[in-house]
């Protein structure tokens, strides 16, 4: 089973300076991840964070993936490899995302589709980002080297791209075929966010 937990940041982020907002958002994500691990019955919840490596649980008892956008945080937890990416669909964010995203992020075939319908830019971006995370590759690998039609067949019948329904967002998961997927909207309390901020800080001390 794969569990998807998500929360909206819209009710909380107003008035935050950017640096403080990003710090706070990581606390939201860390608390949301902890909730997902608890609900999945996973005892070891300490996260190992090392430069240049994908974050992982200390005992590798489960896989997880976190994604952040301007208005959403999404967490995926599974006993098999899983990766998720989310981008918000607010009008201002979409306009900036579609018109400012470098063309080098897309193959020529993808650029042709985006030219016909600019909204494909967000869809393709989340699909490619999820694929990169699944394979423990950073964005420096080069999104333009990844064709979304190729990665859709990359798993040879073992893995697939899955659309995750989240209001006002495009969310894509790259996961093992055949897993049951549950999606849960969770409100994170201020106390849990404060815990998440401190826990994230401690885990980043290498």
What does it look like?
- The strands form 3 sheets. The protein has a 4-stranded mixed β-sheet, with helices on one face. The protein has a 3-stranded antiparallel β-sheet with strand order 6-8-7, with helices on one face. A two-stranded antiparallel ribbon has the order 2-3.
- The mean pLDDT is 88.
- It has 6 helices and 9 strands, in the order βαβββββααααβββα.
- It starts with a strand and ends with a helix.
- With 206 residues, it is α+β, with helices and mostly antiparallel strands.
The order of strands across the largest sheet is 4-5-1-9
Overall 3D form: globular
Radius of gyration: 17 Å
Described by its quaternary structure, the protein is: single chain
Number of strands: 9
> How would a textbook summarize the main sheet?
4 strands, mixed
Low-confidence stretches: none
What is the number of helices?
A: 6
- Tell me the series of helices and strands, N- to C-terminal: EHEEEEEHHHHEEEH
Q: Between the first and last Cα atoms, what is the distance in angstroms?
A: 31 Å
Strand content: 15-25%
Percent helix among the residues? Answer: 25-40%
Indicate the topology:
Elements: E1 2-8, H1 18-39, E2 47-48, E3 56-57, E4 63-68, E5 72-78, E6 83-88, H2 91-100, H3 108-116, H4 120-134, H5 148-152, E7 159-163, E8 169-176, E9 181-185, H6 190-203
Parallel strand pairs: 1-9
Antiparallel strand pairs: 1-5, 2-3, 4-5, 6-8, 7-8
């Amino acid at each position: 089973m794969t569990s998807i937990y998500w929360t909206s940041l819209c009710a909380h982020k107003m008035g935050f300076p950017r640096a403080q907002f990003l710090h706070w958002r990581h606390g939201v994500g860390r608390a949301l991840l902890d909730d997902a691990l608890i609900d999945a019955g996973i005892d070891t919840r300490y996260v190992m964070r090392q430069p240049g490596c994908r974050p992982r649980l200390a005992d590798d008892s489960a896989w997880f993936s976190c994604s952040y956008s301007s208005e959403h945080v999404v967490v995926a937890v599974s006993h098999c490899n899983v990766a998720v990416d989310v981008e918000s669909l607010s009008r201002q964010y979409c306009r900036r995302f579609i018109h400012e995203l470098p063309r080098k992020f897309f193959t020529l075939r993808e650029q042709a589709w985006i030219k016909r319908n600019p909204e494909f830019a967000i869809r393709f971006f989340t699909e490619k980002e999820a694929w990169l995370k699944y394979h423990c590759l950073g964005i420096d690998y080069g999104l333009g080297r990844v064709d979304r039609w190729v990665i859709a067949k990359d798993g040879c019948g073992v893995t697939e791209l899955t659309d995750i329904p989240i209001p006002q967002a495009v969310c894509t998961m790259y996961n093992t075929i055949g897993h049951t997927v549950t999606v849960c909207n969770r409100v994170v309390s201020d106390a849990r966010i404060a815990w998440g901020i401190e826990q994230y800080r401690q885990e980043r001390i290498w």
